[in-house]
Amino acid sequence: RLPPFELLGLDETSLDAARAHLTRYGSAVNLNTASAEILRAVGLPASAVRKLLAWRAGRDRIMGTGDDQRFHGLQTADRDLRACHLNSEEAAVLAFLVGSDRLSVTSRHYSLAAYGWGEGLSGICEVRAVLEKLDDDSVRIIEWSEHWLN
Asked: Do residues 93 and 48 lie in contact, with contact meaning Cβ atoms separated by under 8 Å?
């Protein structure tokens, strides 16, 4: 289990940002998708977060463009991780977080939001779901909610 965010010494802005991403599903934070605030909240030093996100952003250093990169592993010898040039302290913290299942490069839980309408119905329905990918690659619905917007 992760410690309460309040014990991590984050400023109030970072605490609020981290709380917005809390989930009761899964235990690890995905290094390929987590924001800087979440990576700091999980325990990574700010300097390591900057290096990891810069590598993830690719050559142009802009997230969301075609050259973005993904980590494929989190072992110290992984080529992608070595390219981030973490110092020994940053690498030690990262290794601890990986070893205690706080960081991952994959996820089993996904959120889905969809909007639609049915014939003869007035209004648009918003559907939100939390899905879990099982070991046999099937998907299980964990939560489902519907909300009519008008």
From this structure: yes
* Widest CA span in the chain: 63
Q: Is residue 107 pLDDT above 70, yes or no? A: yes
Q: Are 49 and 40 in contact (CB under 8 A)?
A: yes
Token pair 């020994």 is found at: 88
What is the model's pLDDT at position 76?
66
Query: Who contacts 105 (Cβ-Cβ below 8 Å, separation ≥6)?
Result: 30, 31, 32, 70, 71, 72, 73, 74
Count of alpha carbons within 13 Å of 42, Cβ hemisphere only? 27
- pLDDT tops 80 at residue 17: no
Q: Are 139 and 132 in contact (CB under 8 A)?
A: yes
Q: Is the dihedral of CA 48, 96, 135, 130 positive or negative?
A: negative
